[in-house]
């Protein structure tokens, strides 16, 4: 049998090679969620006879086009499809060796993205670390997070969390099949960024996912990111159904409306409609971070962090942030994330760069409330229950767009994957000379964590101390990477009114 052919539980697959690494693309991990299966939980895929070709990526799931992020993230011009539940595997060899497995969950605000982006190519991980890498697609937007149970009955009670259930199904597939690709099903690290990190935060809290992974990495996200209450999700569903001309209970129209028409109906409501996991009492029984605080993932090591200037990225899609005056900015921020304590206002005023425009000064509030706060709560919860926790902050500032983005959201991605050479990357991260060194530090730290649960090693210029209840340390990735004790301490104290 050729080395590129593997035997899975569902049939044989023929893959290809890239730079000495074997890769299998477009592997179905669930039945196509179309027709009668639209808005239902994933089911195991059908078995096939013969050898299935696995040399091309499967379709991306239904999603809108997004020219800005398509250019930045190197997304391919693939036609989206409801039939998009596929995954991809990179491995040094399909042999009997049990290698650590890294399963990547992509971001994109639960609205767009795919596991086939060139930025997420697993070749470097497999080649440099002797690991197996898996990237997945999962249902998003209206197809993955439309809360229908209250209007269409118990059959659709899980519809508000289908994207999460797809991820669980993909992890089950990994558990059952990854040994055929040279991976260890009992040494799996899940990792994700933004909505992918939010997914990791949810998976940590789910009893159904327990045992499907042993470690977790959360990049710029936590279980509180884009999380929705049943009331918020229901209000969005009612607006979407009305716009799509679907009456509550009209199952025929719900299942027959063309996918593109349903997506456009949802998108026509504008950016006010958000997507994400729903605390539905069925799949997600409670707030994920509260579950972690009660020990839901006790003992599971995590690596978690943020970029220094997360929210600056979103000024690319909403330029109005950069045109508001100071008072208008603070008023809008309060509407977005709630009241800001006076102590926090003073902190941001006193610590801002003197030459920074008002929007850069005050968007640090958004960075804290949307990204940092959930990171700290997650780290505290895991540390309190005996887990090894490693925290980081990514400080490399991109020079593109006149330097205004600084160390923004998603900037660390090509560093972690060691994919600085991929299409579109230089347009985003620039070409500062220190980027190669930072990429080596992060890439090999992630590999070390996947192998042992500890990111330390000769690849770092100094030791990366664990984050504990007593010592809230973090590692700062920059031109002069280093460890710091409690770098978020003053900011957190300001929000808690302790300064």
Automatic annotation (TrEMBL):
Residues 4-478 form the Carboxylesterase type B domain. PROSITE patterns: CARBOXYLESTERASE_B_1. Keywords: Hydrolase. The keyword Lyase does not apply. Pfam families: COesterase. InterPro entries: AB_hydrolase_fold, CarbesteraseB, Carboxylesterase_B_AS, Type-B_Carboxylest/Lipase. It comes from the Bacteria. Its EC number is 3.1.1.-. GO terms for molecular function: hydrolase activity. Belongs to the type-B carboxylesterase/lipase family. This is Carboxylic ester hydrolase.
């Amino acid at each position: 049998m050729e080395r590129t052919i593997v035997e899975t539980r569902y049939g044989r697959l023929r893959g290809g090679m890239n730079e000495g690494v074997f890769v299998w693309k477009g592997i179905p991990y669930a039945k196509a969620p179309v027709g009668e299966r639209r808005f239902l939980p994933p089911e195991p895929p059908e078995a096939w006879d013969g050898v299935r070709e696995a040399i091309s990526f499967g379709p991306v799931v239904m999603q809108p086009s997004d020219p800005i992020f398509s250019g930045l993230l190197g997304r391919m011009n693939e036609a989206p499809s409801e039939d998009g539940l596929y995954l991809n595997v990179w491995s040094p060899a399909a042999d009997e060796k049990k290698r650590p497995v890294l399963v990547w969950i992509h971001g994109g605000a639960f609205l767009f993205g795919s596991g086939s982006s060139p930025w997420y190519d697993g070749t470097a991980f497999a080649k440099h670390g002797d690991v197996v890498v898996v990237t997945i697609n999962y249902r998003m937007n209206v197809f993955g997070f439309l809360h229908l149970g209250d209007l269409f009955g118990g059959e659709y009670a899980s519809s508000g969390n289908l994207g999460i259930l797809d991820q669980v199904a993909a992890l089950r597939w990994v558990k059952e099949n990854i040994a055929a690709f040279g991976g260890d099903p009992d040494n799996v690290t899940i990792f994700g960024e933004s909505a992918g990190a939010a997914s990791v935060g949810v998976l940590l809290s789910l009893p159904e996912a327990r045992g499907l992974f042993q470690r977790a990495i959360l990049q710029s996200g936590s279980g509180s990111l884009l999380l929705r209450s049943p009331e918020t999700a229901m209000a969005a569903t009612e607006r979407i159904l009305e716009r799509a001309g679907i009456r509550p209970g009209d199952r025929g129209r719900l299942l027959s409306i063309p996918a593109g028409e349903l997506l456009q109906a949802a998108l026509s409501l504008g950016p006010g409609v958000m997507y994400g996991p729903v605390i539905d009492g069925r799949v997600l029984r409670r707030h994920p971070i509260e579950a972690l605080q009660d020990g839901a993932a006790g003992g599971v090591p995590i690596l978690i962090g943020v970029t220094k200037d997360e929210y600056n990225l979103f000024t690319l899609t909403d330029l109005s942030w950069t045109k508001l005056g100071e008072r208008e900015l603070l008023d809008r921020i309060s509407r977005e994330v709630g009241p800001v304590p006076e102590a926090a206002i003073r902190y941001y005023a006193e610590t801002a760069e003197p030459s920074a425009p008002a929007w850069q000064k005050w968007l640090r509030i958004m960075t804290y409330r949307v990204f940092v706060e959930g990171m700290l709560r997650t780290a505290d919860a895991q540390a309190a229950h005996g887990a090894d926790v490693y925290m980081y902050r990514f400080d490399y500032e991109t020079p593109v767009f006149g330097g205004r983005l600084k160390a923004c959201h998603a900037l660390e991605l090509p560093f972690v994957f060691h994919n600085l050479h991929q299409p579109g990357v230089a347009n985003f991260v620039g070409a500062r000379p220190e980027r190669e060194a930072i990429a080596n530090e992060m890439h090999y730290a992630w590999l070390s964590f996947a192998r042992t649960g500890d990111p330390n090693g000769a690849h770092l210029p100094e030791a990366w101390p664990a984050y504990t209840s007593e010592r809230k340390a973090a590692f700062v990735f920059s031109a002069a990477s280093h460890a710091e004790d409690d770098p978020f301490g003053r900011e957190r104290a300001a929000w808690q009114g302790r300064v």
